[in-house]
Fold this sequence. Notes:
- The protein is of the alpha+beta class and 71 residues long.
- The chain is built from two helices and five strands.
- It is 23% helix and 20% strand.
- The chain starts with a helix and ends in a 6-residue tail after the last strand.
Amino acid sequence: MARDILGRSVMELEWNSPISVGELREELIRQYPELARLKTLAVAVNSEYAQDGNLLKEGDEVALIPPVSGG
């Protein structure tokens, strides 16, 4: 679902200063407002779930994990 909204499965971003997971999430929602529809968009950094306060470092791999439904 996130891939459909972003229009790609991989993207590379560059920042001039450290950024937190929460700031990245806010920036992505600013650029792609439809992401806000995903109420429980989780974020993983280097294959581990991350909290909004975690700071990203150069070379970190970030994955957006949309809500999963099932039974």
